[in-house]
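note to self: dont lose this again. the chain is below, predicted strucutre after it. 278 aa total, dont forget to put it in the shared folder this time
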Amino acid sequence: MSFSLKNIFKKAKKFKEPENTVVYTTTYVMHEKSTITLVSHELNGDWQFMGNESLENFQEIALLVSLNQVVKIDNSILFLADLPFGHQATRIKKSDEWKIEKIHYSESEIQEMGYYCSECGEFHSEIPMSYGAESPTSYFNLDKKTKEQSELTQDICIINQKRFFIKGQIKIKVDTQNEPFTWNVWVEIGKEDFDTGQENWTEENRFLRNPYNGILDTPLNCYPNTLGLNVKVQTQKVGIIPKITISETNHPLFFEQENGIDMDRVTGFAKRILYSHE
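---
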């Protein structure tokens, strides 16, 4: 991805942050007119505007200034006003195009980082212990007309009154954590089980019912193909999402649910899902 300086006045953007937002830069940029050659938008929202100077003595040359001060020095950075979290832009000289790429964080950096939650929109200062899908894959792949004839809520999905899905949770023990890691997934179930679940939606003792069979309809890209895995669905108390248990198989997801994982594995999920690191 690149931005050309030819059309700066046509394509320049505006930062969504207030002009007085505090950003990181250096004395060289602010006082010696060093060209800004590196702009980074960190995962916690911080902006950094650096020049070609060595950063080995960063503590000595670092400056905290307002965003507006940096824009006044070099308005070509307006091209980068919508630079996504976790990305950086580089160039060699001011007349060059900006080259944008993901920031490749180390595992130790990732473990210390947070993320912006897609549900609440807030920044959390730790890596996620849960990921999920907004809809079953079967629904996601439908054409527009069929989607209009289907139903999707945060808990259930019905396709053409013929296929029935519910959302559930696959919980996996993490060796050093009190809380488990969770995959929020969609499972296809039979019409009879679906109807029974709806009839007992507010039934106080519904969690006492026997588990029923389902088919996983969410791809979990940190594993070999998970679509079509057989699962057991256990209804929980009112207000609690169903528990999903992978039926015995030689799939890695089954073994991880059986035996648990460590935080390095959770970090690996973050690398793959949040930062697109293989």
